Amino acid sequence: MSNTSVTAAPEDIVVPKKLGFGFWLCVIWVGLMAFIAIFASVLPLKSPTANFLNSAQGRPPYAPSWSHWFGTDKDARDVFSRSMYGARISLTVGFTAITAGFLIGGTLGVISGYYKGWIDRISSFGFIVLLSFPSLVLAILLTSLIDRNLLTVSLVLGLLSIAPVGRLARAATLQYADREFVLAARQIGATNRRIIIKEILPNVAIPMSSLALLGMAVAVVAEGGLAFLGFSVQKGITWGGLIQLGSDASKTLQNAPWIAFFPILMLFLTVLSLNFAGDRLRTFFDVKETTL
Amino acid sequence: MRYYVQRVALAILLLLAVSMLTFGALNILGDPLFNILGPVAGDVNNPDSIKMIALAKKEFSLDRSLPVRYFIWLSDFVRGDFGVTFSSTGQPPVSGVISERLPRTISLVFLAQMFAVLVSIPWAIIAAARAGKISDRISTINAFFLVAMPNFAIAVILKFVFSLKLGWTPITYMADDPLRSRLFQLLLPALTIGLPVAAVYQRLLRTDLITTLQQDFILLARTKGLSKTRILFVHALRPSLFSFITVVGLNTGALIGGSIVAETVFRIPGIGSTLVESIFRNDFPVVLAIVMIVASAFVVINLLVDFAYTLIDPRVRR
Amino acid sequence: MTQTDLVRSELEPLVETIDVKTHFKTPRGIARAVDGVSIQIRRGQSLGVVGESGSGKTVLSRSIMGLLPRNGVIREGSVRYRGQEIGNCSDKEMQSIWGREMAMIFQDPMTSLNPVMKVGKQISESLRKNLGMSANEALAVAEKLLHDVRIPEPARRLNQYPHELSGGMRQRVMIAIAMACGPNMLFADEPTTALDVTVQAQILELLSEQKRDRNMSLLLVTHNLGVVAGYTDEIAVMYGGKVVEKAPTKTLFANTKMPYTEALLSSIPRLDQPSHSRLTTIPGRPPDLVNPPKGCRFAPRCAYVRDLCLNEEPELEQADSPDHTYRCFYPVGSPEYFERRVELTRKGELVASEGSN
After folding, report:
1. How many CB atoms lie within 10 A of CB B55?
2. Which helix (H) or strand (E) holds C22?
3. Does residue C2 carry a pLDDT above 70?
4. CB contact, 8 Å: B121 with chain A?
5. Residue C98 and residue B220: Cβ atoms within 8 Å?
6. Closest Cα to residue B25, out of A162, A14, A159, C45?
7. Neighbours of B134 (CB within 10 A)
């Protein structure tokens, strides 16, 4: 029997029945990063700002070695501990931004999808306006005008995530708002608020949960981009900032690539984990949908 | 017909909203006077400073209210007069600065899109034809990895490998080089922006292709005795390209944002890097002009993509 | 070729399957969709394959034509076309047969036609690939084909898209595509199921006409006995992946042997029944193809079942004439059959006046 048919049968494409080993691996990594971010100051890390000049090794930057796992930068600061501390701002901003975006955008989306009418028209227009800027441009614009601390930068990124989150929440709500079980609930006299909380939210939460992880990945990348260009938290250590410091001067990048590359690695692994986990969640829930 | 008019009207409304927001943000959250004059703006005791402040206020209409200033600016803007820069080195007109640098960004974005499209289509076709097999899984993983790399990281890595270690491309952009050489210098930055979006495009097209290949009309095409290649390219590809084209078009705006990073890393004087510089210099008119141009381009492109969609998909035609 | 050669080629089956089996690998186990089917179709002859969903009739037609999915399929047995074995041909080898010698039309014309390709091109494509015509020649022939299948204004239709045509017209286009290169064998998979009743008759007439004019063989798959009654020479009834009765059409209706066939026939509502009569149905559900029941596959649902049926599988036997075969231990007309009927009538489960057709 030949194996050259054009059509791939559905059995060919592996459909995961459970979340899988890869998913949990990613969750562990993100958890590890979060742990380090929270407890960095009590962990046995070298100081991220101290200079570890060692005349025996000559002038910094020092290449990776047993005493400096990731090497040092040209001020002899330990790259490993700076990379670990970098997780603090990057992850916090990412998490806060997506949480804010979900709370505001999600609420707006569900409300406009459920009640429709002028609320829907206004918020939809608002979403479109927000989406009319390339997000990086808007982020730069807004962060450049304010005092940049952890909260404000998170809020700006949160603002930017309102639109995509809101649109998805609205679309998901619209899908469910017209279904029979909602009509049935209304018949027995349930108030709108009750319907939203008990009937709509649990269903909408499913596609939103994978969006949460994916969104956090985007937020972390966005913060990285802002930091790289110099628009993130002032005076803070961020992965993007570390990468910029390690790559701005061509000489530095050429001779001491580890200064930029290790933060890149940390960022990459974290974003990859979030993306993969979010994607896994999405396929996992999609499958359930199709068997209904 | 009515549909088109509605969409255009919406686009204009959108642009107005965008312009109001930007203008408002810059003028409310920032302090134009400070940006023009620096610390002099706060120096109210020095009579010279007071004179300069008055002059600046008159020059930039800062003595009028915000809405009036907005209308003044808007009427100038639509006529192509973007004002003059605040930067202290002379006062070149903003439009000059932009017209000099915009083509570079446009070329960059264009190159990036071309690369992404040319790479993603065959990649997606091969992946769809071998769906489920090992080579497909590998390429999916590849695509995944690419998407997880932020474009500034890619830029740094590419610069390290190709400019510094291999020396194939120059480190800084030479604006005076002949056209061919300049385009060559744009190659690496275009790759920076184009690689991650190529991965995104490929994943999308692959999924669409696989779905299309399950349809009955593909089976019918087989019963006609058509070759696998013809079925893939002629029957399966065309219906799958519709959402692909839409995404590519809509993504152009995002690429403009991505050019900011590429231009910064590879030191290309395009409007992306100019935006960042101008913000650091508090050069309002330039910032305003660039943001408006970018947003307008975004809105117009989206509009065109919408229209194009109704023209190419025979199912949607009226 | 000598006279005897010519005569022999007319009498030899055009398409023949010998104990063909098609099994699918599923997460639950191996589904035996077609489990040992042997049929023959001669030139110009039409065979109707009838059965419920899951009986294996569609898989059978696809197995003969070689259109099965790439992975997860196990095939056994032999499929012969014009005496040549085609069961183990690669797709590339089959491409020279598809279109030119064999063609297939499907159930739903809306999804079976390429929605973004003009109708004319979908027809001329086949002509150009299989008969080497030029673009213009092919379009001219396409127009003639549209005329043959009785589509009004054929020239205009060439430039239209499938969604601009009605359901009946789309099905005619599919027939035109199938007929384009003059195949010897046409597989029609539920060609009328998706159509209005009035259109159904037209399409069946059209198929009949084409078959006559071109001396083409036809395999008509359907779940509707009414469809095959007037349009086929021979009928094969399938159940659980096997053929349970095969006979020339008239014989099948007049001298039914297998109780399943009898049940199918009696479930067709008839105009001369008094109104508000209860419709007869067959209780139960089609068998699980992964774990088929031991013994006769229809036994769990058969009104005439006995112990032997549940334990042993009946083989195909001949009835009164060699072209009539069936698979049953206690067929219609046997003593055990009448015994059971008396029992059921006494129990009130069978209306005494109801007889076999």
Report:
1. 12
2. strand C13-26
3. no
4. no
5. no
6. A159
7. 8
Residues of chain A contacting residue C72, judged by C-beta atoms under 8 Å apart: 9, 11-12
CB contact under 8 A, C71 and B132: yes
Residue C98 DSSP one-character state? B
Residues 67 through 86 of chain C touching chain B, CB cutoff 8 Å: 67, 71
Instruction: List the subunits that have 3+ CB pairs under 8 angstroms with C.
Output: A, B
Q: Which two tokens stand for residue B28?
A: 């409310």
* pLDDT band, very low/low/confident/very high, at B83 (cuts 50, 70, 90): low
Chain A residues near residue B131 by CB distance under 8 angstroms: 8, 12-13
Distance CA A5, CA C127 (A): 22
**Which pLDDT tens digit goes with each residue over C292-327?**
888 888 888 888 888 888 888 888 888 888 889 998
Here the ipTM equals 0.82
pLDDT at position B60 is 65
- Only one residue has tokens 């600016």, namely B73
Report chain C's mean pLDDT, rounded to a whole number: 86
Chain A neighbors of C25, CB-CB under 8 A: 11
Residue B228: per-residue pLDDT: 86
Please tell me which residue, B279 or C79, carries the higher pLDDT value. Answer: C79
Q: Does pLDDT of C6 surpass 70? A: no
Distance from the Cα of B79 to chain A's closest Cα (Å) equals: 22
pLDDT at B39: 57
Lowest mean pLDDT among A42-56, B20-34, B135-149: B20-34
CA pair distance B282, A276, nearest whole angstrom: 40
The confidence score (pLDDT) of residue A291 equals 35
Residue B225 to residue C91, Cβ atoms within 8 A: no
Q: Does C176 touch chain B (CB under 8 A)?
A: no
